[in-house]
Amino acid sequence: MLDAKLVRTQPREIAERLATRGFELDVARLESLENQRKSVQTRTEQLQAERNARSKSIGQAKQRGEDISPLLADVDRMGTELEEGKRELESIQAELDNLLLNIPNLPHESVPVGADEEGNVEVRRWGTPRRFDFEVKDHVALGEQHGWLDFETAAKLSGARFALLRGPIARLHRALAQFMINLHVTDHGYEEAYTPYLVQAPALQGTGQLPKFEEDLFKISRENEADFYLIPTAEVSLTNIVAGEIVDAKQLPIKFVAHTPCFRSEAGASGRDTRGMIRQHQFDKVEMVQIVEPSKSFEALEAMTGNAERVLQLLELPYRVLALCTGDMGFSATKTYDLEVWVPSQDKFREISSCSNCGDFQARRMQARYRNPETGKPELVHTLNGSGLAVGRTLVAVLENYQQADGSIRVPEVLKPYMGGLDVIG
Q1: Between the CA of residue 147 and those of 67, 137, 164, 170, 425, what are the distances in Å?
Q2: Broadest EC class (predicted)?
Q3: Whole-structure pTM over 0.85, yes or no?
Q4: Binding residue per annotation — 195?
Q5: Residue 129 in 3-state DSSP?
Q6: Which residues form the catalytic set?
Q7: In this predicted model, what pLDDT tens digit does every residue of 183-228 receive, in sequence order?
Q8: Cα separation, 180 vs 177, whole angstroms
Q9: CA angle 286, 292, 297 (to 5 degrees)
Q10: Which of 5, 109, 187, 353 has CB 3.0 to 4.6 Å from 308, enough for a Cys bridge?
Q11: Is 387 annotated as ligand-binding?
Q12: Collapsing DSSP states into helix, strand and coil, what is residue 328?
């Protein structure tokens, strides 16, 4: 969430910056609510002061033997008006809070301005796409050829946008996740975590999925108890570890990594990537999260992006890095890099990781702070998150880039220890 004071005092400047994201801030409504809040608060404070003074005069009148019933009635009337004022103030504040909760983060000054993905800027490329001397198959054909990838049975079990992995592909999928986790823990200094897959609404509000994106979530309603939501990413559970906490500055940076399934309804993805494993309701992801001191968050973003890139480099998969433009960034991000891996069957790069600096946006929603050693006062931390990587999409890239003419798949060198030394599957 943005700083409420900043939005109140500079609404038009904030609106201009948000407009580059395609978000229209209702400045008139914001100013109207703020004026109402000030008016009601001033009236309530004056009424409280007057009531306090009148209450004191009751005692004085009583000592003089005067009839105090009119004064008592007046105090009672003021009490009723005070309660009404407090309820009105709470209602106005609730609307202001809801408005703030639905405002996206401000883009950093280094973010390219653009309306949509066409405005993204390529930063660098790594590797050269392989040239095949045979007709390339997509991952669906490769998987179904041996009965390893079964969408029909998955649909029987769960419906569309699910996959059943069997045999060598299931093992390869597991190997990829283990390889990624080990790399990030051993080489990149992350602490491995195993988190709940079900969270309550405050956790999702803290990282920005609620209230704006509720339709994209899978919700489990419970009678007389708080609703559960299946996590759309481990970012939610990992980042919220520090919700409501004041972290010792000596603990920073805090770096977590977790391998979890992720669940997304893909409400806005009708008709997109309906074939294969690119866009699923359930998929696995290795997620990186960092909690850092504010002045170091952009340095941390570069490092985290490099951590994700290292996975692709060791797998020898060609990729490119994009700086997302203002109109294509996620709700909570102030700056984002996307990694796109080469997918031979589509003859193009496809997103496989998104690494974002959220600044203090999530921290303010979660009230996640650290104690500044120079001032001794609590200040908001900065939070970052990134895929390291999406396991299913990495599997797609490995199957397609390492395919052979007979439909078998060469095992990438770094995965052989996780595959019992196998050189080829199929």
Answers
A1: 94, 15, 10, 11, 13
A2: ligase
A3: yes
A4: no
A5: coil
A6: 264, 279, 351, 354, 393
A7: 999 999 999 999 999 999 999 999 999 999 999 999 999 999 999 9
A8: 5
A9: 90
A10: 353
A11: yes
A12: helix
